[in-house]
């Protein structure tokens, strides 16, 4: 992945959520390597969306993919 310029770990559920990181069992989460700028851009979009939708701490929400 380094050769392809993908050196940033992207995860789902999002790291900024309580379910993120290693909270859930491995079968219920996913990681992949992406370009650093892509990961930063996506993180910014998620943060902006949470603000626009007034998603507060501990508010439930789900993602349709």
Span between termini? 24 Å
What is the molecular shape? flat
State the low-pLDDT regions, or none.
none
* Average pLDDT taken over every residue: 90
User: What is the β-strand count?
Assistant: 2
For the biggest sheet, the summary is: 2 strands, antiparallel
SSE pattern: EEH
Percentage of residues in DSSP E strands: 15-25%
Helical proportion, percent range:
25-40%
Number of helices: 1
Gyration radius, in Å: 13 Å
* Overall structural domain count: 1
Notes on the protein architecture:
The radius of gyration is 13 Å and the shape is flat. It has a two-stranded antiparallel sheet. It starts with 7 loop residues before the first strand and ends in a 13-residue tail after the last helix. The longest helix is centred in the last third of the chain and has 17 residues. By secondary structure, the chain is an alpha+beta fold. Helices cover 26% and strands 15% of the residues. It is built from one helix and two strands; from the N terminus they run E-E-H. The protein has one domain.
From the structure above, extract its key features.
alpha+beta; 65 residues
Please give a quick description of this structure:
Helix content is 26%, strand content 15%. The protein is built from 1 helix and 2 strands; from the N terminus they run ββα. With 65 residues, it is of the alpha+beta class.
């Amino acid at each position: 992945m380094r050769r392809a310029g993908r050196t940033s770990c992207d995860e789902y559920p999002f790291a900024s959520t309580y379910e993120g990181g290693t909270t859930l069992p491995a079968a219920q989460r996913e990681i992949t390597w992406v370009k650093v700028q892509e990961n930063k851009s996506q993180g910014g979009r998620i943060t902006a969306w949470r603000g626009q939708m007034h998603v507060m701490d501990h508010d439930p929400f789900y993602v349709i993919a």
